[in-house]
Amino acid sequence: MKVRKAVILAAGLGTRMLPVTKVVPKELLPVVDTPAIQLVAEEAARSGIEEIIFVISPGKTSLIEHFAPAPELERALEEREKLELLDLVQSVGKLARITAVEQHQPLGLGHAVLQAKSAVGGEPFAVMLPDDIFDCQPPLLRQLLDVAEGQTAPAVALLEVPRSEVSKYGIVEGSKTGEHIYRISGMVEKPSPERAPSQLAIMGRYVLPPEIFGLLEHAEPGVGGEIQLTDALLALAEHRALYGYQFTGARYDLGDRVGFVLAQVAYALKRPDLAASLRPRLRELLLS
Fewer C-beta within 10 Å: the chain N or C terminus? Predict the structure, then answer.
C-alpha cells in the first residue's frame, strides 16, 4: 500500500477559536512563528507524501497562498542579503505538489473527504486534520503509513484519553494484534462515558483505500445531520481489515485554547534560540 497523496481538511469555520478566526483561518494561526497548516504539511512531506490536496471552503485562498511563491518578498530578502529568511520562505513551496478543492457546504468530515475524490483518484491516500499537531519521531503519519503498509490495510491513529473525555471523540472497539496495533471491530462517534467501548480515541490521521469514496457517497447523515467519516469506516471494517495504531509522541489540540497555549510553550522550548530565555520566565510565571 504505497501512499503518495495526503488530503488535509481545512474547510472548517474555526468557531472554537473565535474571535480571531473571524478574520484569520484557524489553520494559519501560528505555533510560535509557523502556521499550524505548515506543520501538518511538513509532517506529510517528512512522511514521504508527494502531493497534498487541501479541502477548503470558498474564499479561503489565503491558506493556499501561504504555499505559493512570494516574488516581491523573496526579491526584497535577496536584495538585503537575508538569505536564511529567503530559504525559509522558499522552502514552504517545495514541501510537496499542492492542489486544492472546495467544500461548498459544511456537511461533515466524511463529506469533506468526499470532495477530494477526483484529485485522489483510484489509489490509497492519507487524511490529516490540522487541528491536531503531533510532536513525534518518526512523524506520526510515517508511523501510521508503516502500519498500513505492513498490514496491507487501512489504518487510523489512536490515543488513549481519560474516560471523562470520550464524548469528544470517535472511540474504537477492537482487539490487540501487536505492539500498539488493534484490529478494529467497531466504533462510536462521541459516546457518553457509559456507552464508550474503550478509551481509545481516533486522532486526526488516517490511511484509507479509494473505496472509502463509494461508501461516503452512499452514507446517510449521522450525528448532527452530517456525513460522518466514522460511519464510512465502520462500513469499510465490515468487509476488510481496519487497524488502529496507538502512536508514541505528544499531541496538541489547536482547536482548544489550552491545547493551543501548550503547543506554543512546547514548540518554543524545542527552539535553541528561544528556550534559554523562555525557561526562567516560565518559572517566574508559575511562581507568581
Answer: C
CA distances from 230 to 143, 169, 237, 240 (A): 21, 10, 11, 15
Which amino acid makes up residue 223?
Answer: V
Provide the 3-class DSSP secondary structure of residue 96. coil
Q: Please name each of the domains of the chain with its CATH number.
A: 5-277 (3.90.550.10)
DSSP character at residue 49: -
Q: For strands 97-102 and 250-253, give the pairing.
A: unpaired
Angstrom distance (rounded) from CA 62 to CA 261 = 23
Residues shown for the chain: 288
The x, y and z cell numbers of residue 223, run together, are: 450525528
Longest pairwise C-alpha distance within the chain: 63
Residue-wise pLDDT for 242-281, tens only, equals: 999 999 889 999 989 999 999 999 999 999 999 999 999 9
Q: All 3 cell numbers of residue 90?
A: 522558499
Burial class (CB in 10 A: 0-12, 13-18, 19+), 205: buried
Extract the C-alpha cell encoding 52.
497534498
C-alpha cell at 214: 463509494
Q: Indicate the Cα dihedral angle 165, 167, 172, 173, nearest 10°.
A: 90
